[in-house]
Amino acid sequence: MQQHVERTLSTLAACALAAVLGAGSPAMAQEPVAAARQKMIQRIELHARDATEALGRNHIDPEVLEVMSAVPREEFVPEDQRAYAYDDRPLPIGYGQTISQPFIVALMSDMAAVGPQDVVLEVGTGSGYQAAVLARLVREVHTIEIIPELAASAKERLRRQGFANVESYQGDGYYGLEEAAPFDAIVVTAAAGQVPPPLVAQLKPGGRMVIPVGRAFALQHLMLVEKDQGGALRTRQTLPVSFVPLTRAP
Ligand code: SAH
Q1: Which residues, listed in sequence order, are joined to residue 210 by a DSSP beta bridge?
Q2: Mutate to test the pocket of ligand 1, among 11, 73, 123 (most ligand atoms within 8 A of CB)
Q3: What is the enclosing helix (H) or strand (E) of 24?
């Protein structure tokens, strides 16, 4: 179970290590990026196999893995974390926030079961990495971030890298994004105490929401919320996870 948890402690340990090694951690920094990415994909595959029981299957959609082997994760982490960009763990991105562990990004993208015509909402842009991965799988991604500095830097990063089908917004994603709703899928990358009702309302019939639910800084579970054609909800709990909390605008 420990393996499935994005651990704050391991992030702190990573920070300490990064501080000791400095930005250009020799062995890792010199590893060719393509090889590092392939190793990351292999770790994700192993991790998925380990989590078979909780997931109800033993693999991640190959299309998700293909996209993740093409998106340059090193561009989404701060300079001093680049050496660790392809480690299968969350990394600090400033303002007390993290870029999610690659396995979790793969899992959430997979659970959202998106298609090429879909319009998707992400709550919690952070670095913009999850939005970038989704952008390669769907028609349009709308992503909202509550911390103005992170919203601005992710927007610029996504623009610079040519993710033309991502719209970035700054605001409280608890309320979703009325102007772009309804969505085929909603991916929430911060933990909520409960599934926010405005997000349920903005999900299309037949749509799916992936959201970590649980108390802040305690154990949470990754939930899959499915809305059927009649609007009824079905909820399934999958892996235990640990996300930063979904905060609320004052
Ligand atoms: N998806 C991100 C992970 C970011 S961590 C990535 O790929 O890098 C979660 C993010 O959610 C943080 O940046 C945090 O500031 C943001 N967040 C927390 N509460 C929020 C809210 N109510 N609305 C929008 N964003 C929120």
Answers
A1: 187, 224
A2: 123
A3: none
- In the reported structure, the alpha carbon of residue 29 is separated from the centroid of ligand 1 by a whole-number distance in angstroms of 27
Which of 10, 25, 69, 100 is flagged as catalytic? 100
Average pLDDT, integer, range 189-218: 96
**Nearest-angstrom CA–CA distance, 170 and 147:** 7
Task: Identify the residue whose tokens are 């420990």.
Answer: 2
Domains and CATH numbers, the chain: 11-241 (3.40.50.150)
Report the predicted TM-score, pTM, of the whole model to 2 decimal places. 0.89
Burial 142-181 (b: 16+ CB within 10 A, else e): bbbbbbeebbebbbebbeebebebbbbbbebbbbbbeebb
What would the two tokens of residue 17 be? 């290590």
Ligand 1: lining residues by beta carbon, under 6 Å: 97-100, 123-124, 126-127, 129-130, 144-147, 150, 172-174, 189-190, 244, 246-248
Cβ neighbours of residue 144 closer than 8 Å, sequence gap 6 or more: 121, 122, 123, 124, 125, 151, 168, 169, 170, 171, 172, 173, 177
pLDDT classification of 228: cutoffs 50, 70, 90: very high
Active-site annotation holds for 100:
yes
Give the end-to-end CA distance of the chain in Å, rounded to a whole number: 35
